[in-house]
Amino acid sequence: MIRKATEKDIVEIIKLGSILNTNFSKTYDISQYLKDEKYIILLNEDDGINAFIIVYKNIDYFELEAIAVNINFRKKGIASRLINFFEEKYTKKGDSILLEVAVNNEAAVSLYKKIGFEIINIRKKYYDQIDAYVMKKVI
Fold first, then answer.
1. Together in a domain, 108 and 46
2. Most buried residue, 46, 58, 119, 136, by CB count within 10 Å?
3. Structural domain of 37
4. Whether 118 and 57 share a structural domain
């Protein structure tokens, strides 16, 4: 089931988020994100939370800040489903979603292009010494 996160999901989100970043709990204050009305969309199944995305509303666009998918659930279209759920439920025609992704993360770049994101810029050395694409999708 895909749904918006609640306070009771924080521990599992942090656990899964550690695959993104070993400092996930320091980088992302999930409790505060939920209070600030940032969107955390989950795939919650019988065995727990297997994927999430974090999106927030900037002044004039949405920012897709993070995606995490349990390694056992990858390559099953889950990230696409979560992004599509967010788009259908929380955006309207004309809204934009932006994200940054490391240029060497070929799987992620391919996924984003497949679901309609386009490269609009490159940020030099955004991830330490690795450049990042800025990608955008207009709903």
1. no
2. 136
3. 1-75
4. no
pLDDT band at 38; cut points 50, 70, 90: confident
d(CA 105, CA 138): 22
Provide the whole-model pTM: 0.90
**Whether residue 71 sits in one domain with residue 27:** yes
Angle between helices 106-114 and 78-90 (to 10 degrees): 40
- In this structure, the answer to whether residues 10 and 68 fall within a common structural domain is yes
3-class secondary-structure state, position 24: helix
In terms of domains, do 19 and 64 share one? yes
Instruction: Give pLDDT, residue 48.
Output: 86
Of 88, 101, 92, 83, nearest to 41 by C-alpha is: 83
Residue among 51, 49, 81 at smallest CA distance from 66: 51
DSSP assignment of 92-122: -TT-EEEEEEETT-HHHHHHHHHTT-EEEEE
